[in-house]
Design a protein that fits this description.
GO terms for molecular function: heme binding; metal ion binding; oxygen binding; oxygen carrier activity. Belongs to the truncated hemoglobin family. Group II subfamily. Its cofactor is heme. This is Globin. It is a single chain. The protein has about 130 residues and is mainly α. It has one domain: Globin-like, CATH 1.10.490. The chain has seven helices and no strands. α2 packs across α3 and α2 crosses α6. The longest helix has 18 residues. It is globular, with a radius of gyration of 14 Å. The protein starts with 8 loop residues before the first helix and ends in a 5-residue tail after the last helix.
């Protein structure tokens, strides 16, 4: 994920520490969202750790996710979970809130949300 001047979103928002803060804020929201808790484990520690690896890579940082887990194969990995339009929207809402919580600059928030929305749309596998 690159910025207009060929840097990465990862670098622009502050690297690993910023992505870690974003991921933490995101999972604080996920843990409280009634539309999402049915498909997430009660203990989000490992889920959040894996998501951090993915976000680092997705935003243009080191390919930590692939190094540990191989190709993301996101849709395949998410097929066991009922991902409805409502849950997609809830997930995106949590991410948008987390982007605000950790004060990611608007330009980068928009770029992140636009790209991740495409991914979230691809994850839907169940109608309401």
């Amino acid at each position: 994920m690159t910025t207009a001047n060929d840097g990465t979103i990862y670098e622009a928002i502050g690297g690993y520490d910023a992505v870690d803060q974003l991921n933490t804020a995101f999972y604080e929201r996920v843990a409280q969202h009634s539309d999402l808790t049915p498909i997430f484990p009660e203990d989000l520690t490992e889920t959040a750790r894996i998501q951090l690896l993915f976000f680092v890579q997705f935003f243009g940082g080191p390919r930590l996710y692939e190094e540990e887990r191989g190709h993301p194969m996101l849709r395949r990995r998410h097929l066991p979970f009922e991902i409805t339009p409502t849950r997609r929207n809830a997930w995106l809402e949590c991410l948008e809130g987390a982007l605000h919580d950790v004060e990611i600059a608007e330009t980068y928030r928009t770029a992140i949300l636009e790209r991740i929305t495409l991914t979230a749309n691809h994850m839907m596998n169940t109608s309401e």
